[in-house]
Design a protein that fits this description.
By secondary structure, this protein is an alpha+beta fold. 42% of the residues lie in helices and 14% in strands. The longest helix is centred in the N-terminal third of the chain and has 31 residues. The radius of gyration is 24 Å and the shape is globular.
């Protein structure tokens, strides 16, 4: 066999080997990128934003601890002023406590039937001085939205119920959770697998967009 025949044969073998390795690498990447406990693949960021909606009714399916942690991690990945990270998160799974919260807050009835809820609090020991004192509200709000989007991406639904700044709600939540004086509850968010279709609202209003000035 002539030398160029050997060269062609060697190149063919090398090409097959590279193809096999590439296919294995792509399969591994695909498996890791869709690694969620419930088997669903993570949706794109824009898709999650545009299709998220408040979900108030849930199935009885329990949410694995690994999924809860992913949602909490997403919350703590939020942007924060001067990297103060002023949030503290109280996870609610006790049924008696869920019943009490549902009965104590007029717009939080869904907490009773949600597999778990999260109360996002601001830690006053980690605030900016002066006029930046209240940036904790923005920081904790960003964390809360991250959690809602993460839940949606993982096949769950959630809803945000406000606590702060209404004094009576704040004091009630502080008492129920035995919060120290350094924590201010911003909201309570219920999470679970939706019991029915989730239909997002189209909130796009071009007239509310202004470039460079109000006019």
């Amino acid at each position: 066999m002539k030398s160029y025949h050997w060269l062609i044969l060697a190149l063919g073998v090398a090409l097959v080997a590279v193809s096999i390795r590439l296919a294995f690498a792509l399969n591994t990447t695909s498996d890791s990128s869709s690694d969620t406990t419930d088997g669903t693949s993570g949706a794109s960021a824009l898709e999650c934003i545009m299709t998220r909606a408040s979900v108030r009714q849930y199935t009885t399916q329990e949410v694995p601890d690994s999924i809860i942690e992913k949602i909490l991690r997403a919350g703590m990945a939020a942007p924060t002023a001067a990297n103060k990270q002023p949030w503290e998160m109280v996870v609610i799974t006790d049924q008696m406590l869920k019943d009490t919260i549902a009965a104590s807050f007029p717009y939080s009835k869904m907490v009773k039937d949600a597999p778990f809820s999260v109360v996002v609090c601001g830690n006053t020991n980690r605030l900016l001085d002066g006029e930046g004192h209240d940036y904790w509200v923005q920081d904790c709000s960003a964390a809360s939205e991250n959690m809602l989007l993460a839940a949606h991406a993982l096949g769950l639904g959630g809803v945000w119920c406000g606590v702060y700044p209404q004094t009576d709600r704040v004091k009630t939540m502080e008492a129920l959770l035995a919060l120290p004086d350094t924590l201010i509850p911003l909201n309570v968010m219920a999470f679970g697998y939706p019991s029915g279709p989730v239909v997002p609202k189209d909130k796009w209003v071009p007239a509310r967009v202004h470039y460079n000035s109000w006019k």
